[in-house]
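Q: Sequence in, structure out?
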Amino acid sequence: MASRPSPEFRAEAVRVALTSGLSRKQVAADFGVGFSTLSRWIQQERKNPEKPTAQSDLEREVAELRRENRQLREERDVPKKGNGVLRGEKQMRFAFVEEHRNDFPVARLCKIMDVSPRGYRAWRRRPLSNRQRNDMVVLAHIREQFALSLGSYGRPRMTEELKELGLHVGHRRVGRLMRMNSISVKRSKKFKATTDSNHSFNIAPNLLDRDFLADRPNRKWAGDISYVWTQEGWLYLAVILDLHSQRVVGWAVSNRMKRDLAIRALKMAIALRQPPRGCIHHTDRGSQYCSHDYQKILHQHGFEVSMSGKGNCYDNAAVETFFKTIKAELIWRRSWPTRRAAELAIFEYINGFYNPHRKHSALGWKSPLAFEAQAA
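A: Exactly. Output:
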């Protein structure tokens, strides 16, 4: 049978409940007693106030430690939840207090958010201004487009996307709302060499010469091979880009980096675009692209063959940029259990997002397909 609490313990619990500003529910939890029990003690104290008595040091210490632990948890968790809001306008901080008022004491939230409880109560009674209502609408669209872009849109692309949706917003407003609501792009970087230039195949001159602009489709193509790490091992990705619109016109994946990988991507691009003779085809000096089988296909379709300088990644910067984009926006954000899972995700990214929807600053903030449609 549990022992009854001492009079000193009851007196301290009542004192904290009446003087600390905390809710009775919180005080009861701190002291390890029921809410109704604490309420009964308070009623008895008000009816029959007793003179202060000596308090157990142990009970006082336990109660104090409980309060300190709760406060430390709040001081740790509240800033974590409110990252970015602390630097925002008062209206945003009031909104944060309102959102989390059931998780933490309002007084504690107001103190951490550097607003007054009185100001918060006045804010709750005051109707939202037109500007605040508009910000809420814009923020809802930002969250939706951020999710649709796989978390890849920063302030500039997000602004252009919202304008296309018919919202009249500027970069500063979009940046402010994204910053205050902790909406930011996270990127990382890995590296693995994929170019094998130690071979005896013929090398073509650099016809492209870092001129990555084309006035029409099927004038300049560029290709390269990169990699994706999965729990089953490496998955290699070969792509062909049309430099007019940065559109991926051919791609293929394989668990081995052999010439058939590059050939499958090339054949897909040829079947899709049927390029005219004279189209420049630019790659690095990798053995996959210099092989007799690959070069035979290029000559059959009348391509002008161009290759980068030895060890110079800048000569094929357009495709390097694509690989950086797909890795930052898709590959590095997840752990891939199988090569098949990564392949399906790449398919959805290229055909469901990159080609039809992803905005490019170099294309006037249009997607590759939209840019091609405009040029047609």
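The CA atoms of residues 35 and 214 lie 74 Å apart.
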